[in-house]
Fold this protein.
Amino acid sequence: MTDATPHDPGDLRPVILPFNGVWPRIAGDAFIAPGAVIVGDVKIGAGASVWFHVTIRGDVAPIRVGARSNVQDGTVLHVDSGAPCEIADDVTIGHGAIVHASVGEASVTIGMGAVVLSGCRIGAGAVVAAGAVVPEGTVVAPGTTVMGVPAKDRGPLAPERKAALDAIAAKYAANGAAFRVTIADLRRGT
C-alpha cells in the first residue's frame, strides 16, 4: 500500500463562485476545505470553518456564517427568495445537516443530519438534536433542546452538556487553523 497524494495542488481548493456579480466574502483566517462549494452573497466570519463537501449557496438571498462557527462535512446552507440564512458566532452545524433560510443565534448546536426548514429561529445556546426535523417557522427558545420528527421541545440543556457543546466551536476553530497550515504546505509542495 502507498500513501495517497494529490495529483495537482488545484485539487486542494474549494469552489468559490460569484452569482449575479456578487462574490462570497471570506475572512482571511477562515478555513474552507477542498471540495466545499460557496456561491454568491455569502459572508464567512473570522476563524470560521467550512468543511469538506459543504454547499453554501447565497443565490436569491444572503447567507452569513459568524466568527468561529463551524459548518461540518456534507452540510447544505441555502435560502428562499428574500429570506436569508444567518448563522451567528460560535455555532456548530453537524455533518450532513440542512439549514434553509433560517437563523441560528450565538452558540447554537445543530446536530448531524438535522433539517431546519425555512423561517426558523434557533435561540442562543439551543440544541437541535441529530436527525431532528424542525418545521417551517418554528421558534426554538434559547438554551433548550429539540429533537424528533417533527422536532419537539425536550426542555432546557443541562449546564454540563452546554459547557461541552460550547467547547466544540473553539476546537473546530483550532482544527480549521491547523488544516489551513497543512493545505498551504501541500500547495507549496512542502
Residues 132 and 148 are 5 Å apart (CA to CA). The first strand starts at residue 15 and ends at 17. The two ends are 22 Å apart (CA to CA). The chain has one domain: 9-188.
